[in-house]
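Mods, move this if it's the wrong board.
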Amino acid sequence: MKSQFTAVLTPPRMRLLMLMLLMLSMLLLLTAPHLHAEEVQRTPLPASHPLLGTWRLDLPDVGCFEIYSLRANGTKRATSRLEIGESIFSLSAYPNRNGFYKWVDKIVRSNGKPDCMGEVSEVGHVATTYILLHPEGDQFLLCFEQNLNTCIGPFVRQDGI
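Not the wrong board. Structure tokens:
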């Protein structure tokens, strides 16, 4: 039986991923002025939370990758091509009945350089996404809705980074 995680990086899905990232970047540019007022309550997590640690998303169609480091104090460090950013986040302690963790992330610092898609993340931007963790805990999908058709990934756990 094929897992939804093993089929995510097929060439048609990579093209869809690139299109979704481009559309998301454009949406962020259009809605960013309205997002600054939204507040995020940083949520410290227990050291045993399965999503803490360093994760990598490879984007072979653009020759790039992203690294997310989720810390127990409710902060995230992200790198994407030249961009380096810091966020605060709220992340549910447990998945909901559909298996998704809710993640609300607010960018608080950025070096202002372009990411893998050539975009620059705006400080203050808030995004709500949903994470579906693989049963083995070594990879996850990042979804824009609680629906597998809206996901990108897999993000793969990185040891020793």
